[in-house]
Amino acid sequence: MLAIQQNLSKRFYMLLSLPSTAMGFALSVQISALSWILTTQYGLDIHEVGLVWAAGPIAGILGQVIIGIISDNVWFWNGRRRPFILVGGVLAGLMLLALPNIGIVSESLGIDGILAIAITIALTLDLSINISFNPTRSIIADVTPEGPERTKGYTWMQTISGSFGVLAYAIGAICGNFVLIYFGAALVFILSLIPPFFITEPRELQKSDSPQASTESLTFKDIMINIKPLWGFIVYDVYAMGRQLSGIEMNNYYVEAFCALLTLIFVWQTMAAKEENKSAQEAGLIGFRKILAAHSFSWVGIQTMFVFIFAFLQDKMPNINDDELGRIISISFLILSAVAAILPAVLLEPMAAKVGRVKVHTWCIASMAVGYFAVAMFGANEYTLYVLMGLLGVGWSAVISLVFAIMSEKIDQNKMGMYMGLFNLSVVLPQLLVSLGIGLFISQTGDKSAIFILCGISLALSAICWSRVKEHKQ
Fold first, then answer.
1. DSSP letters along 305-368, please?
2. What pLDDT digit, counting tens, does each position of 260-272 carry?
């Protein structure tokens, strides 16, 4: 074990952040370039772009949960998380190289449909990212003690990852998305293949004396109960996927209304549950379910922005060409990432130590809701949009840093990988909703301001839910 790991020095936190940074950079490339490539290079419409993005959440549903469970219970290549980081990194790098060559891949395989190849590449890319994202986050909990050091691990993760995210969008804005993609592929290979060998993983997962710990394995029924606030999302995603595959067109929104009502009922039941007079294990799981509910609403809004900001800009800035569209999107996400890179370690961590992580996170989410409503009203001006993206970066900085520290202390440390995978369902199920449901709605809406109005409503609901989450007691 390196001395920097024994001492938990800042250099170790920086090293520990690099594998997650590799996957974050790959995701930044995907966010910046995928919709742009599909619309400007291959002529896909909004609805088809949504279908391509749906491939990622499907990969996440399977990838993170399965990999999380497996990585909790295996040991090879002198690591538990290391093997999956290495394999996922290689696959992610290869798929980034394939991203700008969808047409060539299609021709070489003798397949006429660009959409099918795009979905396959996007699915493989996102599956690769998901294979690695769970272990890169779980390993931080594995090698850091609960409390401030755990928070420091996740805030430093975002500081380093976010700084590289800024670099990603800067490259896209200055040099173009194709340079960004090839640079990203090389960086993903380097950061996912080298740093894991300098991080010593514990041979046995932490045998915590915490009352949340349990030696019993969770059954499928237990897992379903633990993700109850997400049931409405699951029902709709299954319905919408079946509708897409069958080609059936619906002229009403009865199912959507039913699933929305179902989601609100399950979320309300979850948030109303009392943690008092419960065992520590039961209270921890109640808290975990509340986090799932709150985080899911965050991601409905965030994913809607990621996937459909290009449609908003095309509607509000009709005179810009394809290259200008790509530049504005890159600069917007550069500003978002710059704020998210600076705040976690510089501001969020010390604030969380004083007033609590949950309270700080709730404030950040509320600020993001305000920012989204402001974009809907004033985002038609390029420079106003940039200012508002800075405001949105406050919420984004918390979503990708504090939330992991909050969640990791609600659950059994011995099952960190599994719970990290279940937690990821609060990301991928809303993402699938955005691709299959919100994408269809937006394609039929004349005024694309609806994109950011939906984002604002979703983040406001998330802030309300977060206000009901209890702070972990040290």
1. HHHHHHHHHHHH-TT--HHHHHHHHHHHHHHHHHHHHHHIIIIIHHHHHHH-HHHHHHHHHHHH
2. 999 999 999 999 9
